[in-house]
UniProtKB/TrEMBL annotation:
SMART domains: acidPPc. The keyword Transmembrane applies. Keywords: Membrane, Transmembrane, Transmembrane helix. Residues 61-190 form the Phosphatidic acid phosphatase type 2/haloperoxidase domain. The keyword RNA-binding does not apply. PANTHER family: AT30094P, SPHINGOSINE-1-PHOSPHATE PHOSPHOHYDROLASE. Pfam families: PAP2. This is Phosphatase PAP2 family protein.
Amino acid sequence: MIGLVTAERGIGETALADALPEVVVVLFAAVTHLADPWFLFGLLAVAYWFAGDRLAASPRRAGATAVAVVTCAYAAVALSKAWFAAPRPPGAVGPADVPTWLPGLLSRWYEAQVLSDGFGFPSGHATGGAAAYLALALLYDRAWTARKRLLAAALVAVAVAASRVVIEVHYLVDVLAGIVLGGGVVVVALWLAGDPRFRGRNASRGDRREPTAGLDPTPAFLLAAGVSLAAAGVALAGGHTGEVVEAGIGIATGAGGALGWRLVDGDEPAVPVRIAVPALAVTGALWVGAYALAGSTGVTLAATTVAVVAVVGLPALPERAEAMSNGRD
């Protein structure tokens, strides 16, 4: 489907990026981390585990739904990239033009940021950033005011999108499409989760005042798994090996999220730090291992599924452990 999104789709943004001072480009290379998958899922996991009722009426439901939203966003990216198969800008391939004043360690970091493989349309960072920060602004609805939350979300999403153009790993159209796709995913996923603000006239005023109280992220997780399955089929048909792996991780994440949510009732208190810290280390290791072992599809899928089940099911662990301890007594 590359004919629908051409390889030469730039409008002169590369020349503008080349004209920027090197220090500005380096700063934008750091900004792009705000929508790295590892950062977003780590941020969402911490919010899911630790948020209290000062942030949302049902912080566990809000947090799990935010994770489901971003899982849907990455599934949509995987399907879109496999479908359009549009290449990145030439500058993303390399060699990297690393500023000479950067020290050795930062030079290697910078080079890793400005070189990217895979397809370019739409931008995964722009999609994931828009979906994640908009979801956080909508779901943690007791923080600040709605205007401040939405403004902050928009600023971060736009900064991330701009960073992808500045470091020349995406064209402008890639990030604009990503922002639109991410916003659309939020609407669909929250509608599936039962958010009364997206259910129209069927929602009562009481539901609208406490929109997170009845959320169920399961349908959104299952949608992510289904879209990722479609992405895997498209990628296989096109011979895009890398996209098959990404789609497989999406299937495992969606299925793992749905399974993990079955372990909790949604009303659990915040996870104690003594449990969260080792859990974050274990799940993080599993997540990194899933990508490191991308050549072994079965191991990758298993590691991802276990990691996501553990992340989503963790709030139920303290109560279950206490029940087991009382049972032994």
